[in-house]
Design a protein that fits this description.
33% helix; hypothetical protein tt1634; 670 residues; BON_dom; 26 strands
């Protein structure tokens, strides 16, 4: 006991030491910080913001200095003043220099329920305390800031507003959420706290501060305990309710709803949230729900607790077993079968439609029986050449009397349209569309009224693709004269191919001719100067070269090349097919006449066969009788052919007399 007795006093000694430390340490720290306060306050005069750049913190008997000095000299001066203080045992320098940050990066990170860390760079023009006040004001009350951002130059204008905007968005994110700025681009990542917070974030990000843009957004929707998705169909349209796992899935549901009820109202009550079983593909689930919705007139398709159910009024009696089969065989993976509670009611109104497009003719709606279906198809098919007939009709009771007669009467009318649709609702038939011809468009309402059975009402609204022209002929001639006044269209020497200079003038002339049916134009093409026409029997080089040069007279982007203009029914001035004139053979050398021969025969060229005399004479005579192709006519034909392919009617254009050497001549005929 005597040897170990001193150990009994150790607890008391430790208690005395702890009490002294707890009591004296804060006082020592306060005295050390107070000693350096005057030095820190003096650094405010070196900044334009009036806020000291030097920050001091006592660590035991050491004094830590932090901040960003304007320059090296200022930093050395401040550290020397701190070293001269009597209280601190040691000065720990963490003082940096103000630099230019490029890019200028700043971030706010939620590190706890009521704690946010600031890092990166802050504008040197804004004091630390001033910026912290802006950020704290945008956060929830009681939030503590851990600010390690360093002052730097290069911040974008109105940085404080962008920082406050990001901090406000951070309030809707869970722990780990990050709001960042890179120059003028704002980004956000993390998980939303709840559904209202997620919707508020989506709305706020659509309106960033002036001068800033939204960059990368990676916000996870919140997770919900019970995931559900509902499609409600009624006479008013479609109502979507429940959740969608992402914004893309939500858009997919809205598109499917718009396609399911074209022209009807789609009411969106969907919220973005997680909670769907990962084994279930959301887009496949949405598509399956709308397949079921196609089978109901009014009712609900709902997904809840991983099961799909459908209730309501079926579109027809056939739809009830179809829905059961779809539920049994077409469910997506991971989806459980729910109830199918459908009732068949008489259709009201009873609807059927025939839609005509350039690609196909499609039948939709309901028909009373197969005989009516075959009657309608038989009325359509003989009037269609390439377009397929797509039959999507279903059989259902409740059809109005004489439905087959009304559809068979309207089918030829809609088949003759360029595009159009005949729609039946009970005993009312509506025909709409567009005809290629004005006369047919004008006669369609009268023909429809004559063809409908008694008791039916019909309405036809048909527009003509090319409406009647009402322009004044004198104005047309004046515009044509102005178009041709400055035109000097010349062919290349020896050629009959249109050059790029022709296209703007001929296109403008063709457009005017189509708009002015009374306009008549004569085309006169010239020959080349100093190249007279070859005499009969002589070679015709221009005629031989012309077919090659006339291979194409339409430019690639013209109506003729693209096929948008109709082809002319007949060509103007068809060219006779002419064989090229045979080349003259060099006269053979004559052999000396044998003695006693009174009529020596002409010698034949070496290495050639001697054709019969009569055949040679006949070929020579044919070559002389056939008229050669001349260059002016080829050139005129090239211009006329281009205008015809551009849509000018054949009776509006003709060939005039050959023009003298120079540009092509255009004449406006009375």
């Amino acid at each position: 006991m005597r040897r170990a007795g001193w150990l009994a006093g150790l607890p008391a000694l430790a208690l005395i030491w702890a009490s002294a430390t707890l009591y004296a340490a804060p006082q020592i720290a306060d005295r050390i910080e107070a000693a350096g306060a005057s030095v820190a306050a003096g650094t405010a005069t070196a900044t334009a913001i009036g806020e000291p750049w030097l920050r001091l913190e006592a660590r035991g008997r050491d004094l830590a200095a932090a901040g960003e000095a304007p320059d090296v000299g200022e930093r050395e001066t401040v550290l020397a003043k701190l070293a001269a203080l009597e209280g601190p045992r040691r000065i720990v320098s963490e003082v940096g220099l103000v630099e230019t940050a490029s890019p200028f990066l700043w971030a706010a990170i939620r590190t706890g329920a009521a704690r946010v860390a600031l890092e990166g760079s802050r504008p040197v023009e804004i004091g630390r305390r001033a910026l912290e006040a802006r950020v704290t004001g945008a956060l929830a009350p009681g939030t503590h800031l851990d600010d390690t951002a360093r002052a730097a130059r290069g911040a974008p204008p109105d940085f404080a507003s962008a920082a406050a905007f990001l901090a406000a968005r951070l309030s809707g994110l869970a722990k780990g959420g990050r709001a960042a700025l890179s120059d003028t681009v704002l980004s956000l990542s993390g998980e939303a706290l709840d559904v209202p917070a997620y919707e508020a974030l989506r709305a706020a990000l659509s309106d960033p501060p002036t001068g800033f843009s939204i960059g990368r957004i990676e916000i996870l929707p919140p997770a919900v305990a019970q995931y559900r998705f509902t499609v409600e169909k009624s006479a008013r349209g479609v109502l979507l309710d429940g959740f969608a796992p992402s914004a893309a899935d939500r858009e997919a549901a809205l598109r499917a709803a718009a396609e399911a009820v074209p022209g009807s109202t789609v009411q969106d009550r969907l919220l973005t949230a997680r909670g769907l079983d990962p084994a279930i593909d959301p887009k496949t689930l949405i598509a399956f729900a709308f397949k079921l919705a196609e089978l109901i007139q009014a009712g609900t398709v709902s997904f809840s607790d991983d099961a799909v159910s459908v209730t309501g009024d079926a579109i027809d009696a056939q739809a009830i077993p179809d829905a059961a089969a779809l539920m049994r065989e077409g469910r997506p993976a991971g989806v459980k079968p729910g109830s199918v509670a459908l009732t068949a009611r008489p259709l009201s109104p009873y609807r059927v439609a025939i839609r005509r497009t350039p690609e196909a003719v499609t039948l939709t709606g309901h028909l009373p029986d197969d005989a009516t279906r075959e009657r309608v198809l038989a009325a359509l098919r003989p009037r269609l050449f390439r377009e397929p007939v797509v039959d999507r009709t279903r059989l259902a009771d409740g059809a109005p009397p004489d439905l087959g007669t009304a559809l068979a009467a309207a089918a030829p009318l809609v088949a003759n349209l360029a595009v159009g649709e005949v729609a039946v609702s009970d005993r009312a038939l509506t025909l709409t569309g567009e005809s290629l011809y004005r006369e047919a468009a004008a006669r369609t309402p009268e023909r429809l009224a004559e063809a409908l059975p008694p008791g039916w009402t019909g309405q036809a609204t048909i527009a003509a693709r090319q409406p009647a022209e009402t322009r004044d002929p004198a104005a047309c001639r004046a515009e044509a004269a102005a178009t041709l006044a400055g035109a000097a269209l010349r062919f290349p020497a020896g050629g009959a191919t249109l050059t790029p200079a022709f296209y703007p003038v001929l296109d403008a002339l063709a457009a005017l001719a189509k708009a002015c049916p009374s306009l008549r134009i004569a085309i006169s093409a010239p020959a080349d100067p100093g190249k007279p026409k070859p005499a009969p029997g002589e070679g015709a080089p221009a005629a031989e070269a012309a077919p090659t040069q006339m291979a194409s007279t339409a430019r690639p982007d013209s109506p003729a090349a693209t096929g948008s203009a109709p082809k002319p029914a007949a060509k103007v001035h068809p060219e006779p097919e002419t064989k090229p004139a045979p080349k003259k053979a060099e006269p053979p050398k004559a052999e000396p006449a044998k003695p006693g021969a009174s009529n020596p025969a002409p010698a034949k060229p070496a290495g050639s066969k001697t054709p019969p005399t009569q055949k040679a004479d006949k070929k020579s005579k044919d070559a002389v009788d056939e008229p050669p192709l001349d260059l002016p006519r080829l050139r005129g034909q090239a211009v006329i052919e281009y205008l015809l392919q551009a849509g000018v009617r054949p009776d509006q254009i003709s060939a005039g007399p050959d023009a003298p050497a120079g540009p092509v001549a255009f004449a406006l005929l009375p």
